[in-house]
Amino acid sequence: MPSPTHQPESEALRHSFAERGGPWVVAQNVLTFAVLVLGPVFRRQWATGVSVWAGLVLFGIGAWLGIAGVLALGRNRTPYPRPVANAQIVRHGVYRWVRHPLYASLMFAGLGWSLLWRSWPALGATLALSVLLDRKARTEERWLSARFPEYTPYARTVGRFLPGVY
User: Fold this and answer.
1) pTM
2) Is 161 helix (H, G, I), strand (E, B) or coil?
3) Left if phi > 0, otherwise alpha if psi is -120 to 50, otherwise beta: which for 42?
4) 1 Cβ contact partners less than 8 Å away, ≥ 6 residues apart
5) CA-closest candidate to residue 81, choices 160, 10, 139
6) Are 119 and 34 in contact (CB under 8 A)?
7) CB atoms inside a 10 Å sphere around CB 11
8) Could you tell me which residues come within 8 angstroms of residue 111 by beta carbon, excluding any fewer than 6 positions away?
9) Which residues share a beta bridge with 159?
């Protein structure tokens, strides 16, 4: 007979850092930090031109996506790609147009930040972060589809990061 503190294996795994997708979160945080630091450290690597204005617009889009995503997601929010135990599919607010607005917000804000500082290394870190977030989103979508049958039809109609594009 199991001890009173014994948890079924699936319950124990659900709480493990790695099983929740912890390595994705660590990599995401490292690359986000790199974008933030590399911008001002390696700044003004090209003439201003339109990059500062484009950077402001992209950073603003990223900020809006992040705020709108957090508000719509509510208690379902987690930094991990595996959904929380009592999660529900969110299809309202910004989630009507984009499946992963929080990831998209980091991509847009990172690109905007890099352009504001005019930093090639920050742009490179933003590209690496974007690739990582795309892979993290795909992992998350596999888990969401396995848990929620209604996720697959939703994913067919709503773009991953850009409405009607991708």
Assistant:
1) 0.89
2) coil
3) beta
4) none
5) 139
6) no
7) 10
8) 55, 58, 62, 123, 126
9) 98
Amino acid type, 113: W
Q: Residue 41: what residue type?
A: V
CA of 45: how far to CAs of 37, 58, 74, in Å?
Answer: 15, 19, 40
Tell me which amino acid residue 165 is: V
Q: What is the mean pLDDT of residues 66-74?
A: 97
Of 88, 118, 111, 87, nearest to 161 by C-alpha is 111
Tokens of 159: 């773009």
Q: What is the CA radius of gyration of the chain?
A: 18
User: CA 73, CA 119: separation in Å to the nearest integer?
Assistant: 33
Mind giving me the DSSP string for 73-133?
HGGG--SSSSPPTT-----SGGGGTBS-HHHHHHHHHHHHHHHHHT-HHHHHHHHHHHHHH
* Mean pLDDT value across residues 66-70: 98
Name the percent of the chain lying above pLDDT 70: 91
Q: Enumerate residues 6+ apart whose C-beta is below 8 A from 116.
A: 39, 51, 52, 55, 56, 59
